[in-house]
TrEMBL record:
Name of the molecule in the record: Agmatine deiminase family protein
Stored PANTHER family: AGMATINE DEIMINASE-RELATED (PTHR31377)
GO annotation terms (biological process): putrescine biosynthetic process
GO MF assignments: agmatine deiminase activity; protein-arginine deiminase activity
Keywords in alphabetical order: Hydrolase
Stored InterPro entries: Peptidyl-Arg-deiminase_porph
Signal sequence, start to end: none
Keyword Hydrolase appears in the UniProt entry: yes
Keyword Hydrolase: yes
Length: 345
């Protein structure tokens, strides 16, 4: 009999109690385009609350009142929205929220050091987010484990069965003096994984995370991976994403079978002020009974939804307008952190 009390890192498709986000406001980097971004947040919260509760971090009472008014006026199910007042620098909660291990009926919140993606941005308040949320008592039956090691949630993918997927570029950038074997051993120990699969290829222009895996390749099941492909030979991404596709094809499951692979279509380039933005369909969010898909107002949106429908049979595919988000170099998954069933009352 397996030990059900042993720590385990659940897959994103396992049942969830809520999804955690942080509301954008004039004191964040969204200030210049706040209206557009708020519209995306309203669509996101409206979609999440169709399937489960959402916990919304707010900077102060004024932000809470404003967010509540905006959501209510858009007929969001406010019975499924909970506001929590807590300081934060930015709203990318995939990288600053808790990475949760399940230990039987209790939970361990892994609180890795957040350095603003390798010191690119101010991050002192974000680095204390998990500590503050845990101290407020919003998590049930949980302990917090601080780990003095730079790691973001968007940098790792688990299949829930002991396999971790990550990219060498990101982990090497954060820890340039560490060998791959050492990093793999540390990740496996902290996250209670049996093995770590590394991708050496793949990146997106406009991505300042140093190739987070959640912009490139995601587990859809223990034997299935959805990934961002590029079929345009004239595009600068073609060679690295083709190389990544070959890497994925060479990977084997824990029982030594090739993965079922689901390539996502390539959206047209999005250019803003001469800067290319990182539009990836791989940055989707799994909710209870649904997959929320980043949509970019591109002809490829419908094809991406079809691929995700194949990869996640039985789940509703819900497009969320994410073009405003990529202006700040992230998309849907980057904004959110799922909380496993039982973690929130």
């Amino acid at each position: 009999m397996p030990d059900t009390s042993a720590p385990r890192f659940p897959a994103e498709w396992e049942p969830q109690s809520a999804i955690l986000i942080a509301w954008p406001h004039a004191g964040t980097d969204w200030a210049e385009r706040l209206g557009e971004v708020e519209d995306t947040y309203i669509a996101l919260v409206a979609a999440i609350t169709r399937f489960q509760p959402v916990i919304v971090c707010v900077a102060d009472e004024d932000v809470e009142s404003y967010a509540q008014a905006r959501l209510s006026s858009n007929r969001v199910d406010m019975a499924r929205v909970r506001f929590v007042e807590v300081p934060y620098d930015d709203t990318w909660l995939r990288d600053t929220g808790p990475i949760t291990l399940r230990e039987g009926d209790s939970f361990r919140l892994l609180d890795f050091r957040f350095t603003g993606w390798g010191g690119k941005f101010e991050a002192s308040r974000d680095d204390r987010l998990v500590e503050r949320l845990h101290g407020m008592g919003i998590f049930c039956n949980s302990s917090r484990q601080h780990i003095d090691f730079s790691l973001e949630g968007g940098a790792i993918e688990t299949d829930g069965a002991g396999t971790l997927l990550t990219t060498w570029q990101c982990l090497h950038q954060r820890h340039p003096d560490a060998e791959r074997e050492q990093l793999g051993r540390q990740l496996a120990d902290w996250l209670h994984q049996d093995r770590v699969l590394w991708l050496d290829h793949g990146y997106l222009e406009g991505d300042d995370t140093d190739a987070h895996v959640d912009t490139l390749a995601r587990f859809a099941a223990p034997d299935a991976i959805v990934f961002q492909a590029c079929d345009d030979p004239a595009d600068s991404h073609h060679a690295p994403l083709q190389a990544m596709a070959a890497e994925l094809a060479a990977l084997r499951t824990a029982d030594d079978r090739p993965y079922r692979l689901f390539p996502l279509p390539w959206p047209r380039p999005v250019i803003d002020g001469g800067r290319r933005l990182a539009a990836s369909y791989a940055n989707f969010l799994i909710a209870n009974g649904a997959v929320l898909m980043p949509a970019y107002g591109d002809p490829a949106d419908a094809a991406a939804a079809a691929v995700l429908g194949e990869a996640f049979p039985g789940r509703e595919i819900v497009p969320i307008p994410c073009r405003p988000l990529i202006w700040q170099n992230g998309s849907l998954h980057c904004l959110t952190m799922q909380l496993p069933e039982g973690l929130v009352a």
